[in-house]
Amino acid sequence: MYKYASPKNFYPFAGRLIPWLGALAALLLAVGLYWGLFVAPADYQQGESYRIIFIHVPSAWMSMFVYVVMAAAGALALTWKTKLAEVLASACAPIGASFTLVTLVTGSIWGKPMWGTWWVWDARLTSELILLFLYIGFMALEASIEEPRRAARAAAVLALVGVVNIPIIHFSVEWWNTLHQPASVSKLGAPSIHPSMLVPLLIMVIGFKLYFATVVLMRMRYAILEREKYTHWVAEVVGTKAQ
After folding, report:
1. Which residues fall within 8 angstroms of residue 143, CB to CB, at 6 or more apart?
2. pLDDT value for 177
3. Alpha-carbon distance 131 to 68, whole Å?
4. Alpha helices per DSSP H over 116-231
5. Cβ atoms within 10 Å of 105's Cβ, excluding its own
6. pTM, whole model, 2 decimals?
7. What are the two backbone dihedrals, phi and then psi, of residue 235, each rounded to the nearest 5 degrees?
8. Backbone region of residue 34 per phi and psi (left: phi > 0; alpha: psi in -120 to 50; beta: other values)
9. Do the beta carbons of residue 35 and residue 53 sit within 8 Å?
10. pLDDT digit string (tens) for 56-77?
11. How far is Cα 174 from Cα 207, in angstroms, rounded to an integer?
12. Do 68 and 77 touch, CB atoms closer than 8 A?
């Protein structure tokens, strides 16, 4: 697997994976959405409004998961100065920011009928908003430095500092008295959500992960071409595509 740490070898490998991952992501998302929106029963307390969880919950999980991947890639880039790790961290940031924004928007939509307001300075909501600012700060810092490798190192440090926010988001409903409901899927023991709702939710989670894998590989391929544009192998790839 070490050979795929080289951009030259990773580029075609990612290209082979993308169609399969994308097709599987599309299939699972279609099945999960149909099941969640039209097949799963209404909630006995929240009625039909609970169905937003099939977007909100996977987005929330992915917002944290992508940040951890980004920070881990940043740590690898700082430790071993691996180009591919720098590219991965950079590719993760806008995707993670998108998931975080979707989480905040769908949470507000759900909060209006449940809490009577679009927004409260709840510990979970506030820490999720901070996560969005961390993603934006990562991208802004990276864009403010012209030299790519210096930019990647500076952004990696910021990403590692921001990791402390991830456990705060996750445990906020346990550490503080918040309006946000506690975990119903990932808690220890049996989940408190009915299987008819849990199964499509888990399908959506897997679909979101595959979507992330597809998009991050696409972004990495573009970034590799941009970074390595003066190398012979990129000239060959571009020349082959032009023909």
Report:
1. 151
2. 60
3. 11
4. 123-144, 148-162, 165-175, 195-227
5. 14
6. 0.91
7. -60, -40
8. alpha
9. no
10. 999 999 999 999 999 999 999 9
11. 28
12. no
